[in-house]
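Supplementary material to the annual report.
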Amino acid sequence: MVLSQRLHEAFKGTVERITGPRTVSAFKEKGVLSVSEFVIAGDNLVAKCPTWSWESGEPSKRKPYLPADKQLLITRNVPCLRRAASVEEEYEAAGGEILLDTEESEGWLATHGKPKETKSDEDENLPSMEALDINEQNCIQSIPSYFKSEEEEDIPDMADYEDPDNLVETDPATLQSTYLVAHEPDDDNILRTRTYDVSITYDKYYQTPRVWLTGYDESRMLLQPELVLEDVSQDHARKTVTIEDHPHLPGKHASVHPCRHGAVMKKIIDVLMSRGVEPEVDKYLFLFLKFVASVIPTIEYDYTMDFDLGSSSR
Amino acid sequence: MARIEEEKGSLLQFAPFQSAVDEGFWHRLSSLKLNKLGIDDSPLPITGFYAPCSHSQVSNHLTLLTDSLPADDNEQSVTPALGHGNRNRCSVPGIIYNTNTLEAYHAVDKKSLLKEEAKKIWEDILSGKAVEDSSVLSRFFLISFADLKKWSFHYWFAFPALVLDPPAKLVELKPAAQWFTSEEAESVSAACNEWRNSSLTSDVPFFLVIITSDAHATVRHLKDWEACQGDGQKVLFGFYDPCHLPNNPGWPLRNFLALICLRWNLQKFNFFCYRENRGFADLALSLVGEALVTVPQGWRDCQYVPNAVGWERNRGRSISRNVDLAKSMDPTRLAISAA
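Predicted assembly:
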């Protein structure tokens, strides 16, 4: 792991240990959530989008400031039919909307293809806070170095596990060899359907929700986190998506780094307020997930909101 | 050719259940093995979880999570009993046969083990236990070998299904939205959503759908079958279908058919494959079918146990699965990645 990232984690861990969780609401002022607001927003997400549920995670990793049965939000087996990278290429080629990732337009869309200057500015517009500097280069290095032992591993030869008893079950009522996954739109016979478990945790340091991704291939075998990056919008794959220990589940998982979540949420809230909509804190996660969808555009998790955002409409 | 097609069409074919094992399950199995079980390789009861299909393009799986196994410390966790009432985690009873060596793993007599497990389902159908607690109809098991030196896990699932001989025939199968009148469909959706939203019933995977002559639908427990007869009511046998395919019901219907024909002596009846979209009843995705079942010969003999199938196939082949978790479990590698 990159040194600056390690240092930052140590720092963040210490701060988290010695400071209490946020109790005063700063939702409108800073775009952040207190612990109780996170629970309120989570309850509302579970109620409106029942594919999400609260879980308690690993007992040993339980956070005392959250209710024991409401440690994280999770939705499992979410389909991801196409790789984000290939979708983006096509979209851009067609001159479609793309995410503008500059200081002025955080998280918003440009409708007329990718402006040239955004590309050239990319290095200046990295998502950095004082204590954290995940830059493009570091991220690219960190992933392969974590997985560099990949080649040493023998890929198990399937034939080794062929059943010696020759277990043949002839049963006409068993549906044979039909792909039980999505019908592929392309005809090159490469199965692209992946599924994801998407979880949301509360990041005490940044006081925002944080999204984690666990990917599976079409036969539901765990996907290497580096392959998960193929399903992340390419702008973010190089910047804001990192691979770290999950705060409530075992193993390393890809995560959208929360360092800018508060600022982006604040922008979204400001825009809503300028339109005369009074945002309510229990809708926070819907707004948040809508924003996260720009980072992971092809992972079809549910954040449907068929009701208005604010109180002015009710 | 046309005739073959026709014959194929009339045979009721079920999409096999698929397994999914969360990394956390293997972590807990390892710690149980190291801290508590030792070389004890007796079968261990576990809990699998599933939910109705919730997307038109992917099926749901029978999933094993950390909570599928008991915790290795004796501390009672604060969590309520095994996700009861969690609509995304309907509990299914299962067993893990974890062997101590790779040789023992390969030497497992798979045919007789499957037969043994299927017998439990058969007995639960005969005794009526399956009507009280329908989750036993989807009973599953897996054999495994946990190589704790290499953090590598070999495993193979089986979802035992009693074989009907002759196989069940399909009279018709169509999207529920087309089978019901629009009035009925609306009422069925509402009743199913209510069933799914109540913490008392949300994880009860088999049920009855009753539709009165004035198109009012209710969802009832299987044990209410007798009470639901008569008065020109339509009765459908519903189940949470993990499968997304438009022309095939999922695996849980298999043992349900056996229960229906044996318990209630029905030979022709309607079944309802309940599926969801974004967590709500989706009758365009759900199916209604009419099945024709003949009680196979011998099923009335008290000593008889029907044949069973159900070893999971991996990419269409009968092979064991293997997962390597050295990356997240090997202390040396963890230390290197942390350096």
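Strands of chain A lie at 53-55, 72-80, 98-100, 108-110, 194-203, 208-216, 241-245, 252-256.
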